[in-house]
Every structure is written in structure tokens, then in C-alpha cells.
From TrEMBL:
Gene Ontology MF terms in the entry: methenyltetrahydrofolate cyclohydrolase activity; methylenetetrahydrofolate dehydrogenase (NADP+) activity
Gene3D superfamilies documented for this protein: Leucine Dehydrogenase, chain A, domain 1, NAD(P)-binding Rossmann-like Domain
Domain Tetrahydrofolate dehydrogenase/cyclohydrolase NAD(P)-binding: 210-358
NCBIfam families: PRK14186.1 (NF010783)
GO CC aspect terms: cytosol
Subunit structure: Homodimer.
Similarity comment: Belongs to the tetrahydrofolate dehydrogenase/cyclohydrolase family.
Designated name of the protein: Bifunctional protein FolD 4, chloroplastic
């Protein structure tokens, strides 16, 4: 049998590893994502084609649905499109009522192609909903003080309502110092310690929730998945996804277990879950044998694997073996087209919320 490496991004700078057996997938690092639970209080019902329910039933997906030929696809791309339409309407309303246009500032350091692509996508998304976009591009050898100066300027700029520092940063910079420099009122990434602290406290509300875990919960809400009282497993404990996702599930009254690099019998624990959120950056780690029949799976992983048939020489897969999951789970997010589009949609949502809060606009 071949050993497998389980990546647990429990901090921005360190990865812990634990060998497993049975699988031969290569190691691929977890990609970084950015980004209250409902976007707006009155959201229209999804088209029937996106619903996990039978037309006349409002019950939670049951294990009996696993007998169907394939799981329902949780279409994050379609949901994100609907959310962007809602956000666009809110931006128009805000502009017409008080003459304010929400603004998002993005700081990019270095020339990483993936980071540049993410920034481009965020800028395009801003334009699509009417949000002003401010962009700073710095070379890889820029100083930490330069970054902090731009953050300070954006903190004091009333036309900027959200500030995002694209991660990862070059190794010579103190990532936490830079993230902490963003004022909590403009921390649309939701990474500020005070936002995370409020998220962890019962009876306390953060100003912003990290975008990727927020998008995961929004998908569950919009597909009518009942979270209360369900057993949920989060695979991975990163500050960006795993930890806040677990906190959000607890706020929804789920019973939550976190599986990480030091967990014994992760397969056995995961198989007990009604809801699985996986965010470890290990391609196809979660096999069909890990999944309880009828479970709902949110796959945050986006991992390139070699594929000679692809023009690019690779294809993208999730942490969950999609083909196997489709035969057992009640519902599963695809990769790509699942959580990824939701992350950017939640970033836009947080930016609009920040602008509305700044002017006490409801």
C-alpha cells in the first residue's frame, strides 16, 4: 500500500503532515481563499432545478436519496450568480438613495500567477455589480512598511469600504501584522482577531465572516439543508476556512467535529457526518468509504492533478473523490463550480454590508 500525505494548514505559515495508507495521490498545497450568514434577509427561492427537495417537501435530505443514480449537484456557480444580481440591486439602491458607491481596495504583492488571477476575478466581479475597485500592485521585494502605508491610506479613505490583502504574502513579511493593520470596520476578509473572536463567542456578532466558510454555509441555506442538530465534520483547521467553518456550524446548532493531521481514524469519524466540509488541499483524499449514505458534502479543495488529456496538462479536483461521492452522498459541490464562485460573492456581500453600515443605511 502507498502512503498519503494529509495537509493541515492550521496556520498561514506552517503545514503539518500525517501519512495515511491506501491512496497514492500526490501532495498539492491548499490554495488560499478569501472571503452574518445570509447575504440579504429576503432572498428569492432558487429555481426548482437547483432545489434538493421534492416539489412538495421541505424535509431535510434523507439517506434514502442516496439510492438515486447520482447525488444532487450543489451548483455554487448558479447560486453566486443569483447573489451577484441581489448585490447589484442593493448597490443601485444605495447609490440612488444616498449617493454612495461601495468601494473595495485590493493590495497584491509579488507576481504569483494564481494570486494575479484571483485579483483579476475580484476586480471583474466588482465591476459586474457596480462596486468601485481600487488596486495596488507591488513588487515581490516591496517592504512591509510600504504595504502598511497603503493599508493606512485606505483605512482613512471614506470611499473605500473594504480592504483585502491578497495572500500569500512574500516570506519576508509578517502576515499577521499586515492583516491586523486593516481596521476592523473594513476587514471584509473577516481575518481580524476581533472579528474571529466575536465569531467564537456566543451572543456576540462579528462585523464580517471569512468569505469561504460564509459561502459554504450560504450554500447549505440556499439549498434548504437543515443544519440544526445534525452531525457535522470539518476536515482541516486553518484560520482561513476550517476553524471559522466549524464556528459557523456551531452557531447553526450542529454538533461539530474537526478532523486534522493528528486525528486518529479520520475515515471512521467522517463517516458519521450528516454534513462534511473539507478544506485540506489534498486531491481526492475523501473516498466513498469515508461518506455516510445521504450526507451533504461541501468540498472547498481545488487541487491541480496531472492530466495528459487536458490542453493545460492538468485538471482541477477537490479534496473529495467526486465520482465516488456522487454514488453515496445526497448532495455534493463540484470542483470547480462549487465553493469558489461563492467566495467572491461573499466578498462582494461583505463590502456592500460595510458601506451600508458606514452610513447607517438599511
Amino acid at each position: 500500500m502507498v502512503s498519503m500525505i494529509f495537509n493541515d494548514p492550521s496556520s498561514a505559515a506552517a503545514f503539518h503532515r500525517l501519512s495515511f495508507t491506501r491512496f497514492s495521490n500526490g501532495l498539492v498545497s491548499l490554495r488560499r481563499f478569501v472571503g452574518p450568514l445570509h447575504v440579504f434577509s429576503n432572498t428569492p427561492t432558487l429555481p426548482r432545478a437547483l432545489s434538493l427537495h421534492a416539489p412538495r417537501s421541505s424535509r431535510f435530505i434523507t439517506a434514502s436519496m442516496a439510492a438515486e443514480p447520482s447525488a444532487k449537484v450543489i451548483d455554487g456557480k448558479s447560486v453566486a450568480k443569483q447573489i451577484r444580481e441581489e448585490i447589484s440591486a442593493e448597490v443601485t439602491k444605495l447609490k440612488e438613495a444616498i449617493g454612495v458607491v461601495p468601494g473595495l481596495a485590493v493590495i497584491l504583492v509579488g507576481d504569483r500567477k494564481d494570486s494575479a488571477t484571483y485579483v483579476r476575478n475580484k476586480k471583474k466581479a466588482c465591476e459586474s455589480v457596480g462596486i468601485n475597485s481600487f488596486e495596488v500592485n507591488l513588487p515581490d521585494d516591496a517592504s512591509e512598511q510600504e504595504v502598511l502605508k497603503y493599508i493606512s491610506d485606505f483605512n482613512g479613505d471614506p470611499s473605500v469600504h473594504g480592504i483585502l490583502v491578497q495572500l500569500p504574502l512574500p516570506s519576508h513579511m509578517n502576515e499577521q501584522n499586515i492583516l491586523n493593520a486593516v481596521t476592523i470596520e473594513k476587514d471584509v476578509d473577516g481575518f481580524h482577531p476581533l472579528n474571529i473572536g466575536h465569531l467564537a463567542m456566543r451572543g456576540s456578532e462579528p462585523l464580517f465572516v471569512p468569505c469561504t466558510p460564509k459561502g459554504c454555509i450560504e450554500l447549505l441555506h440556499r439549498y434548504g439543508v437543515d443544519i440544526k442538530g445534525k452531525r457535522a465534520v470539518v476536515i482541516g483547521r486553518s484560520n482561513i476556512v476550517g476553524m471559522p467553518a466549524a464556528l459557523l456550524l456551531q452557531r447553526e446548532d450542529a454538533t461539530v467535529t474537526i478532523v486534522h493531521s493528528r486525528t486518529k481514524n479520520p475515515e471512521e469519524i467522517t463517516r458519521q457526518a450528516d454534513i462534511i466540509i473539507s478544506a485540506v488541499g489534498q486531491p481526492n483524499m475523501v473516498r466513498g468509504s469515508w461518506i455516510k449514505p445521504g450526507a451533504v458534502i461541501i468540498d472547498v479543495g481545488i487541487n491541480p492533478v496531472e492530466d495528459a488529456t487536458s490542453p493545460r496538462g492538468y485538471r482541477l479536483v477537490g479534496d473529495v473523490c467526486y465520482d465516488e461521492a456522487c454514488k453515496i452522498a445526497a448532495a455534493v459541490t463540484p470542483v470547480p463550480g462549487g465553493v469558489g464562485p461563492m467566495t467572491i460573492a461573499m466578498l462582494l456581500s461583505n463590502t456592500v454590508s460595510s458601506a451600508k453600515r458606514a452610513y447607517n443605511f438599511n
